[in-house]
Task: inverse folding
């Protein structure tokens, strides 16, 4: 398969990349890991005149903890995320997501910024970004803005990023003590596959009485974008964490929150049933973690 | 427009003009004649084009040649020496880990990268280490045995 002809740009700084974006706008595309974009270009699904590679910009490659926040550069690869001690300790569901994506070859190239911009409903790191309530950092030549990740996705393959903007990274508040999170994805195989259904849950409890202080649930592959399980979260609000309330939340996620479709990977009915199962399982695992078990 | 890049392939420095839309796999195979690196799917699914780029295995069909300016690439041709095959290659022969042979170069590069980073992998780690390489003859068990025999 041949790639179409394009001009290649290799800026060394965010400013340089933004200048190129401003010049070429909709005729340019950002190239990060390339594990989706180069495939789409080969299959003629997208067209491009200018490719702007951003993987050599140092500030996009950093994972940092500062002032209660963890910032993750857009070009951090899945392999680096999975290997990061900081991510493993403080954002374990994100580590699980990074580890489940594709296979070891893909994980060495695929980036978290690319996973978000590709905006697949099945994206492996996206449920984790949703439950950790990440802010997406978007820059243009005038400055930066932050968008909650729950507002970032607008449709399959579509995000709210503007033509002149570059996604430079994510900012996530470090989860407090007494919190836990878990991610489970189901596919046809253990690697090199696209999720049939995937769920992440986050829970924060009061250790004195096990009351739920905060709970967030994210559902993948069951709507045009990865979504928050709003009805399920409502069920959990203010309740005491136990199997009964997790079952009720799982029912709400299955019945009210997800809107799956049939496709060649799986049926809507299977996906809907699994949303219930995985919501319950991820909540139970998140609670065990929150309790330090 | 072509650009001249400098890339170290199997310990040899190449200064070569590449098109922006040329993949590393195509550069290796068509410009440099290093046809040991195979192309199966050309979309990052099969792993036949696996090479080691700056110490990590990648699908060379999903890397632009122009992006490898200043990089170090190791391909299957770099493994054997005048003394003979690389021990991992020998192990593949001895254990019958080669059937049609098409996946072997990629499989061996993944195995080499795994063993470079982890000299004593468990069976699970070996399975994960070749999880991006498909063998259509489905001879996985013997491939795993071959890699396992190279633990130290």
Result:
């Amino acid at each position: 398969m041949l790639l179409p002809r394009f001009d290649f740009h290799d800026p060394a700084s965010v400013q340089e990349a933004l200048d190129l974006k401003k010049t070429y706008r909709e005729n340019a595309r950002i190239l990060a890991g390339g594990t989706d974009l180069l495939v789409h270009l080969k299959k003629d699904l997208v067209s491009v005149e200018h490719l702007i590679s951003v993987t050599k910009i140092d500030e996009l490659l950093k994972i940092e903890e500062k002032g209660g926040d963890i910032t993750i550069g857009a070009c951090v690869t899945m392999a680096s995320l999975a290997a990061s001690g900081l991510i493993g300790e403080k954002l374990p569901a994100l580590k699980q997501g990074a580890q489940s994506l594709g296979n070891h070859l893909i994980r060495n190239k695929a980036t978290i910024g690319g996973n978000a911009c590709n905006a697949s409903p099945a994206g492996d790191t996206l449920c984790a970004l949703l439950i950790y309530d990440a802010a997406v950092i978007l820059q243009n030549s005038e400055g930066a803005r932050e968008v909650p990740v729950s507002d970032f996705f607008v449709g399959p393959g579509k995000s709210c990023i503007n033509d002149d903007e570059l996604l430079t990274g994510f900012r996530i508040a470090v989860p407090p003590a007494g919190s836990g999170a878990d991610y489970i994805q189901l596919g046809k195989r253990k690697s090199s596959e696209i999720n049939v259904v995937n769920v992440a849950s986050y829970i924060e409890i009061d250790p004195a009485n096990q009351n739920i202080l905060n709970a967030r649930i994210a559902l993948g592959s069951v709507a045009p974008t990865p979504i928050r399980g709003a009805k399920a979260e409502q069920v959990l609000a203010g309740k005491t964490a136990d199997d009964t309330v997790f079952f009720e939340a799982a029912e709400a996620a299955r019945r009210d929150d997800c809107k799956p479709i049939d496709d060649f990977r799986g049926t809507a009915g299977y996906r809907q049933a699994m949303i219930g199962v995985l919501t319950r399982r991820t909540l139970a695992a998140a609670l065990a973690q929150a309790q330090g078990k | 427009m072509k650009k001249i890049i400098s890339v170290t392939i199997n310990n040899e420095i190449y200064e070569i003009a590449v098109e922006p839309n040329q993949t590393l796999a195509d550069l290796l195979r068509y410009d440099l004649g290093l046809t040991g690196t195979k192309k199966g799917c050309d979309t990052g699914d099969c792993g036949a084009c696996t090479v080691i780029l700056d110490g990590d295995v990648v699908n060379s069909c999903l890397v632009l040649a122009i992006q490898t300016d200043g990089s170090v690439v190791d391909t299957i041709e770099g493994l054997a020496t005048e003394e003979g095959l690389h021990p991992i290659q020998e192990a593949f022969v001895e254990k019958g880990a080669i059937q049609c042979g098409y996946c072997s170069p990629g499989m061996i590069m993944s195995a080499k990268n795994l063993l470079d980073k982890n000299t004593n992998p468990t069976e699970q780690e070996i399975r994960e280490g070749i999880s991006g390489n498909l063998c259509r003859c489905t001879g996985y068990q013997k491939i795993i045995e071959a890699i396992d025999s190279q633990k130290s």
In short: The mean pLDDT of chain B is 97. Chain B has two domains: 3-77, 87-148.
